[in-house]
Amino acid sequence: MLVLGIETSCDETSASVVRDGREVLSNIVASQIDLHSRFGGVVPELACRAHVEQVLPIIESALQDAGIALGDIDVIAVTSKPGLIGALLIGVSAAKSLAWAAGKPLVGVNHIHAHAYANWLENPDTPYPAVALVASGGHTSLLLCSGPAEYRLLGATNDDAAGEAFDKVAKLLGLGYPGGPIIDKLGKKGNPKAVDFPRPMLGKDSLDFSFSGLKTAALYTCYGQDSRGGPLPMPNDLSEERVADIAASFQEALIDVLVAKTVRAADLTGVREIVVGGGVACNSRLRAKMGEAAAQFGLRMNIPSLKFCTDNAAMIAGLAFHSAARGEFAQLDLDASPSY
Ligand code: KG4
Ligand code: ZN
User: Fold this and answer.
1) 128-303 maps to which CATH number?
2) Which residues, in sequence order, are bridge partners of residue 3?
3) What per-residue string of b and e applies to 78-111 under the rule 16 or more CB within 10 Å gives b?
4) Which of 126, 210, 225, 282 is the most buried (most CB within 10 A)?
5) Which residues, other chains included, contact 267 with Cβ-Cβ below 8 Å and sequence gap of 6+?
6) In ligand 1, which atom is closest to the CA atom of 111?
């Protein structure tokens, strides 16, 4: 079965053709980083305009790259939730129009589930059930994956997503956007024990996350306790070493929480298999520490390669194959939703 996947939930326009949920024939990703970087975060209105311009050419490229005509496609799949509502609507409208015009069935895909599924694209033999940590710019969630299209939410962030915290702390430190990769690189030069940042765990059995306190602690560390009100000066008085130390310590605290909660989720569900997805899964320290924790607690861990951790349509097309195989199709009234 050939599935055309379309992804426009945030700041990447992507289209992909995947055969039978695992063979990626094409995966075109147009990033909008240049558009948003001077604002230090995604500007929804700009993202929407760029998606409108990009979506049809990107779909065209994905078909061309796969050497496939639209008529050969069996199913059209699109991210329908969660994400920026305006951005999602552009992908959903494009998918519905194509499905109607070409007479193809349509599948609506949950973006968070697809980030978890990205692991099975590359490692299709990973056994079920598995606990998935999905950490990205918009989401931080733990899921119980019982089968290819069977996911149950175990916990999620109450405030900032992990990637969002990386991006905001990078902005505080006067670094660029997106902050995650920059802090990852800079953190290698800093001392992760220099600042004793809090590790918010929210109670013994909680599988939810909260990163806003950690972000505020980073703010106070940079500017002192008086920074609560008023305009912030740029941290010119922070030495390069101090910036690297704060970056490394912040990263360590956030990753400790991600790792501890994932292990806790495996423990509470009795699952031995861990997978990680989302843009933050590119983080080298997270990849290393999750691996160490898995070894320590006798768990098996899989993380996809970097190109399938960040937003991409291959994970959408891949997961949609399993929904289609179960007969779970959407109708042409498919709507987008900003929430899970
Ligand atoms: O999954 P993704 O591409 O888009 C969303 O669904 O949000 O994730 C983007 C997020 C950004 O916040 C970015 O800073 C973060 O992933 N990210 C990283 C790294 N690479 C990307 N965070 C930490 N370390 C990295 N190496
Ligand atoms: Zn994502």
Assistant:
1) 3.30.420.40
2) 18, 75
3) bbbbbbbbbbbbbbbbbbbebbeeeebbbbbbbb
4) 282
5) 297
6) 6
pLDDT digits (tens), the chain, 340 positions: 999 999 999 989 999 999 999 999 999 999 888 888 888 788 888 989 999 999 999 999 999 999 999 999 999 999 999 999 999 999 999 999 999 999 999 999 999 999 999 999 999 999 999 999 999 999 999 999 999 889 999 999 999 999 999 999 999 898 988 999 999 999 999 999 999 999 988 788 999 999 999 999 999 898 776 555 444 555 567 889 999 999 999 999 999 999 999 999 999 999 999 999 999 999 999 999 999 999 999 999 999 999 999 999 999 999 999 999 999 999 999 999 999 9
Sequence ranges of the chain with CATH classification 3.30.420.40 = 2-115+309-325, 128-303
pTM: 0.95
**Ligand 1 within 6 A of 7 CB?**
no
> Residue 230 Cα, ligand 2 centroid: separation in angstroms?
33
**Going by C-beta distance under 8 Å and a sequence separation of 6 or more, which residues neighbour residue 178?**
33, 37, 137, 163, 166, 167, 170, 279
Ion ligand 2 contact residues with beta carbon within 5 A: 136, 311
User: Is residue 154 within a helix (H) or strand (E), and if so which, with residue range?
Assistant: strand 150-156
* Cβ neighbours of residue 333 closer than 8 Å, sequence gap 6 or more: none
What spacing in Å lies between the alpha carbon of 279 and ligand 1's midpoint? 3
Q: If you measure from the C-alpha of residue 178 to the centroid of ligand 1, how many angstroms do you get, rounded to a whole number?
A: 7
Side-chain half-sphere CA neighbours of 122 within 13 A: 15
| Cα separation values, 202 from 143, 205, 220, Å | 18, 8, 21
If you take atom 10 of ligand 1, which residue's CA is the nearest one? Answer: 137
Domain 2-115+309-325 has CATH 3.30.420.40: yes
